[in-house]
């Protein structure tokens, strides 16, 4: 049967996730950590959540930090995911940062969210950090995806989309014009 905790982890690994690097500025510079447990929480107010191992340095740094960033990695940034997970490769180049008023963000990320701490909750061996998004930016880039213990790429070849052949897709007219009402801008 094996170790129940390992089996549970393998079960959770069947859920594909995006890959993020959470960043926080502190006295010694910038610290980042690769985090797969990231999710949106609310549109109004705009809230996101990251789950951090309570024993991690990032968890300590984020507790009491005035702000933090969430960098949604692009498909070409596997090396950064490994670096910030503590597994740098020997040929790793220096990290390129984009510094601005929103705090440190990784150059070339698919998206970046600038957050202020909103709340923190006990999550067993993790702490669930909720941040209020005060700004964000996006690039036209495919995301880095993690599934089954490995990095994956999305299949974005023309004609290979989830709706192909179902007659339920937006291109087939199956969605009403009211669908647009589900897209709410942050504008607050």
Q: Number of DSSP helices?
A: 3
**Elements, N to C (H/E):** HEEEEEHEHEEEEEE
Whole-number mean pLDDT: 80
Oligomer type:
single chain
- Unreliable spans: 175-185
Shape: globular
Class by SSE composition: mainly beta
Taking all Cα atoms into account, the compactness measure Rg is 18 Å
| Largest sheet properties | 7 strands, antiparallel
Task: Give the fraction of residues assigned to helices.
Answer: 10-25%
The strand order across the widest sheet is: 3-2-6-9-10-5-4
Estimate the strand proportion: 35-45%
Question: What is the end-to-end distance?
Answer: 52 Å
In total, how many beta strands? Answer: 12
Q: How would you sum up this structure, described in words?
A:
By secondary structure, the chain is mostly beta strands. The protein has 3 helices and 12 strands, in the order αβββββαβαββββββ. The chain has helices spanning 4-12, 57-62, 78-84, and strands at residues 17-18, 20-26, 29-35, 38-43, 46-53, 68-72, 97-98, 105-106, 111-123, 126-138, 145-147, 150-152. Strands 3-2-6-9-10-5-4 form a 7-stranded antiparallel sheet. It has a 3-stranded antiparallel sheet with strand order 1-11-12, with no helix packed on it. A two-stranded antiparallel sheet has the order 7-8. A hairpin with a 2-residue loop joins β9 and β10 (126-138). The longest helix has 9 residues, at 4-12. The chain starts with a helix and ends in a 36-residue tail after the last strand. The relative contact order is 0.19.
């Amino acid at each position: 049967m094996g170790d129940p905790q390992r089996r549970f982890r393998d079960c959770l690994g069947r859920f594909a996730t995006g890959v993020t690097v959470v960043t926080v500025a502190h006295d010694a510079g910038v610290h980042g950590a690769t985090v797969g447990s990231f999710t949106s929480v609310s549109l109004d107010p705009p809230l996101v959540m990251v789950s951090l191992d309570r024993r991690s340095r990032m968890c300590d740094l984020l507790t009491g930090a005035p702000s933090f960033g969430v960098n949604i990695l692009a498909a070409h940034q596997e090396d950064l995911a490994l670096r910030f997970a503590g597994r740098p490769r020997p040929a790793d180049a220096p990290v390129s940062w984009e510094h601005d008023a929103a705090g440190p963000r990784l150059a070339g990320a698919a998206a970046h969210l600038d957050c202020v701490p909103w709340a923190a909750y006990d999550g067993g061996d993790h702490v669930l950090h909720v941040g209020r998004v005060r700004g964000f930016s996006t690039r036209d880039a495919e995301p880095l995806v993690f599934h089954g213990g490995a990095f994956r790429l999305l299949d974005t070849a023309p004609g290979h989309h989830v709706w192909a052949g179902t007659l339920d897709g937006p291109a087939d007219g199956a969605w009403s014009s009211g669908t647009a009402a589900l897209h709410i801008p942050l504008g607050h």
